[in-house]
Design brief:
Length: 128
């Protein structure tokens, strides 16, 4: 129910890692899936540098100013603006077919200068 606060119960079996031990025993670059999901998007860009398809999708999220979010960030905990930018990142991460027109509405408030420059940089890369 949306009017009650979220309740989280710490699982004693997995110790809050959300995976069974057999799954946690599998690692990539020394990290199991639980540890990978704790990475921020900024950290994941470096971690997945050798996997172009993952790196590109993660980089798009960073390019639009959300590099501080964790990979396992629950979507209900995102602000409205963060949720909109995640939707935008999903679209921008798709392979370009050269036949897409993007219409970006200007914000109703003036965002901080750093965020404006990131948005301009992301938008300038849309054509390629």
């Amino acid at each position: 129910m949306s009017f009650l606060p979220d309740v989280y119960i710490h699982c004693e079996v997995c110790e809050g890692r959300r995976f069974n031990q057999e799954t946690l025993d599998i690692t990539y670059k020394g990290k199991n899936i639980s540890e990978v999901l704790e990475l921020t998007f900024d950290e994941a860009t470096k971690f997945f540098s050798a996997v172009p398809s993952i790196r590109r999708a993660v980089q798009v999220v960073c390019d639009i100013g959300l590099g501080y979010l964790c990979l396992a960030q629950p979507s209900p905990s995102l602000s409205g603006g963060e949720a909109q930018r995640i939707k935008l990142a999903e679209e921008l991460a798709k392979p370009s077919r050269g036949r897409t027109l993007y219409i970006l509405d200007e914000p109703t408030y003036r965002p901080p200068p750093g965020r404006c420059s990131k948005a301009r940089k992301s938008a300038s890369g849309l054509g390629g």
